[in-house]
UniProtKB/TrEMBL annotation:
<dbReference type="InterPro" id="IPR003593">
    <property type="entry name" value="AAA+_ATPase"/>
</dbReference>
<dbReference type="GO" id="GO:0005886">
    <property type="term" value="C:plasma membrane"/>
</dbReference>
<dbReference type="GO" id="GO:0016887">
    <property type="term" value="F:ATP hydrolysis activity"/>
</dbReference>
<dbReference type="InterPro" id="IPR015854">
    <property type="entry name" value="ABC_transpr_LolD-like"/>
</dbReference>
<feature type="domain" description="ABC transporter">
    <location>
        <begin position="2"/>
        <end position="208"/>
    </location>
</feature>
<dbReference type="InterPro" id="IPR003439">
    <property type="entry name" value="ABC_transporter-like_ATP-bd"/>
</dbReference>
<keyword id="KW-0547">Nucleotide-binding</keyword>
<keyword id="KW-0067">ATP-binding</keyword>
<dbReference type="GO" id="GO:0022857">
    <property type="term" value="F:transmembrane transporter activity"/>
</dbReference>
<dbReference type="InterPro" id="IPR027417">
    <property type="entry name" value="P-loop_NTPase"/>
</dbReference>
<dbReference type="Pfam" id="PF00005">
    <property type="entry name" value="ABC_tran"/>
</dbReference>
<dbReference type="GO" id="GO:0005524">
    <property type="term" value="F:ATP binding"/>
</dbReference>
<protein>
    <submittedName>
        <fullName>Putative ABC transport system ATP-binding protein</fullName>
    </submittedName>
</protein>
Length: 208
């Protein structure tokens, strides 16, 4: 479960945000739509604990992540939060599989090759497991970032424009996979996007 209350944040006097309260239950999902520049990525970074709010609460289960120290937050994020960033972030010299195994190692959950293979197959990139990330297309890289966010079965899945480089077919595959994964692993899914193709695939949505 992820829930926010009275969240406020400012980069500076010019960029000051108040965000709507959200509650996304286990297995639940929420689509957050908004035009460019309204603060979607800022909101997602707050939910992920990558930015500290000026005021308000961000509860994941019973933990208010806004109150955790940096060290505790890093550990908490590795175990409980899966993030799909707008731009894929990988070690380019490593293969797809090696990158995912590294993520498992760093989060302290231990390597699970079977899980890595399974998630790659489901995203239709199993055949690229031994390929260097730098040799993939943008759409394939985006699917690897989704695999990276899901590989540790997180409690909360946060995704920033997960479908922006995907064609309609893979857009539907990825959205279904994210929803299925949330349902199967009792996770809460938050998708942030300006991609209106997604609106019909989510029953819960808000606009920023
Ligand atoms: N580090 C920063 N310092 C100052 N202002 C920032 C910073 N990051 C973002 N902003 C500003 O905050 C506003 C919201 O940015 P944000 O990236 O959250 O928007 P967005 O809705 O995700 O946009 P897009 O859909 O174009 O990615 C923008 O006006 C942006 O210029």
């Amino acid at each position: 479960m992820i829930a926010t209350k009275n969240l406020r944040f400012s980069y500076d006097e010019e960029h000051y945000f108040t965000f709507p309260d959200i509650v996304v239950s286990k297995k639940g999902h929420l689509l957050i739509l908004g035009d460019s520049g309204v603060g979607k990525t800022t909101f997602l970074h707050l939910l992920a604990g990558l930015l500290k709010p000026g005021a308000g609460e961000i509860k994941i289960g019973d933990t208010d992540i806004a109150r955790l120290s940096h060290r505790k937050l890093d550990k908490f994020r590795g175990r409980h939060i899966g993030i799909v960033f707008q731009k894929a972030q990988f070690i380019r010299a490593l293969t797809v599989e090696e990158n995912l195994l590294l993520i498992q190692n760093l989060s302290g959950t231990g390597q699970d090759k079977k899980r890595v293979r399974e998630i790659l197959e489901r995203l239709h990139i199993g055949h690229k497991a031994a390929e260097k990330v730098s040799n993939l297309s943008e759409g394939q890289k985006q699917r690897v970032s989704i695999a990276a966010a899901l590989v540790n079965n997180p409690d909360v899945i946060l995704t920033d424009e997960p479908t922006s480089s995907l064609d309609d077919k893979n857009c539907a595959v990825v959205t279904e996979l994210l929803k299925e994964q949330a349902a199967q692993t009792n996770a809460s899914l938050v998708v942030i996007t300006h991609d209106h193709r997604l609106a019909s695939q989510f029953s819960n949505s808000i606009r920023l």
